[in-house]
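Comment thread on ticket #2218

A.B. wrote:
> Attaching the input chain for the structure job we discussed in standup.
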Amino acid sequence: MQIMTDTLGKLMGSAARVKVMRLFLFNPHATYSALEIAERAQVAVAIVRREILVYEGIELVKVKRTRGKREKAYTLNHQFEFLEALQHLLLNLPVRTLDIAKRVRAMGGIRLVVLAGIFVDDYQGRVDLLVVADKVEEVKLRAIIKVFEAEIGKELRYVALKTDEFRYRLDIYDKLVRDVLDYPHSVALDRLHLPLR
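C.D. wrote:
> Ran it. Output below, let me know if you need it in another format.
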């Protein structure tokens, strides 16, 4: 995913531009201030303000005044002439499963990583990422998830389970686990040697 972001960044001028644009495209009905954009996309607010000026100039975004707030807020302009082409380019990119597995594996103790939902073009799926680990370090996992979210431009739905809990849920055909495994998914890492593909 990082390589893909770097390539798009070169193509479109900067990785920051891609991140901010994806945030609007994945959240077409949301309204954000420059500070909120900076936080979600993990881009400096000065860069966000510069990008927003460009987007306003080409009418990709429009200003939406909010009651009681002095700061401008921005939302996607659904009438933008090239909106469909941008969505196709930036939202339907193949995900580098090995890259994701490598980054999650850096936490240590990871037994299984399954990509679903947004990673396999299923935007209605309940879960995007399933992680099974002997010790789930929530703080580290959340930090990694936030990086993914900044690169992708969308909040991810993820589940982190301990190995015993995952095996139990698998045995009883737990709905949450089945919602991942019975629908399109991709196994990025499997140290449990389960027939999940």
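A.B. wrote:
> Thanks. Noting for the ticket: The chain has a mean pLDDT of 83.
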